[in-house]
């Protein structure tokens, strides 16, 4: 067999032995149970900071920005599936593989930037959740910052892993609040559909900065690290699972599960994001309120336009998505640092078994809480943190694509075919959006 034929077989996964699965009756419960890292990753993408970015985009640019959700869906799905494959094949997350196969300085740069970006994001999310709670029931926002922050960190440290994963899955339902919010908006569905299907470009630095912010919010580095690490984590928890690079049997079924999980999670994420953009366009943009900076401001601005119920639904969604996203942000940070240092890692471990891992998790959450008590306004930094995430995503995605094709990392399961090409297309699209923003600023 020639080398080219071997690569072709790898690309199609035809070399993977798999027993013919026994046909079982459809069960909604079993389908939900099979969803895991991909669903949680996709849902956590619509965190309070993301809601703020999508609300701002819809308020400023109206229906015409909806096309970004159609474009980003296949791109984010590809890069997240590749991330998941790396974790499932190797039994290590992205940082764990970087420390084993690449220079130490590269690991330090990537993990340091990830720690900073995620911690600022946690601070901004806590602030948005506190403001949303204050809208709902009143009271001091700082109290809610501490309450939500401590609760999120403590749950990760002390809850049973499987119970905690189940809680995160249930929290994804909070995102349906933004589908419900559409009922209170007078949406021009023809304009909304045109905005999704027909891109409308405006050559200005503000426009391209918004595009990069949307891309940075939608295709974000912490999502890559989290999903890869969670695939590796489930192998440590489930004794029937082993890294595919060690035991090849069942790889095809595992890749099918990963694809279904990832496609479901990313579709859910983009549907919610599009609902937020359309709601903001139909209400805030239509009413001339284009100065929205945060998700809480968007919720408050909805009251005189769409009524108090729209405000309540929007605010409840902010709290629910924050409770889902903060653990993912802090967890992704802890996994990256812990795997990079080769510490014992994993939410399934007892605190005394992974003290350093949980210390990083608590430190990231603690700094996020503390930033809300400093002169630094995390909400003011929120929009730009999304832009920074977009810029940071480019080198991380390049690294991930090189890793996915590296035989020393992936063995016989190197990523190829259309998935590999779509991964590079996603990387190129992110790079082009950053370049366009830079050119717009210079001109």
UniProtKB/TrEMBL annotation:
The chain crosses the membrane at residues 104-124, 136-158, 170-187, 207-226, 267-287, 312-335, 356-376, 382-402, 422-442. Its main location: membrane. It is found in: Membrane. Residues 1-24 are annotated as: Disordered. Pfam families: Nramp. Keywords: Membrane, Symport, Transmembrane, Transmembrane helix, Transport. It is a multi-pass membrane protein. InterPro entries: NRAMP_fam. Coiled coil: none annotated. This is Divalent metal cation transporter.
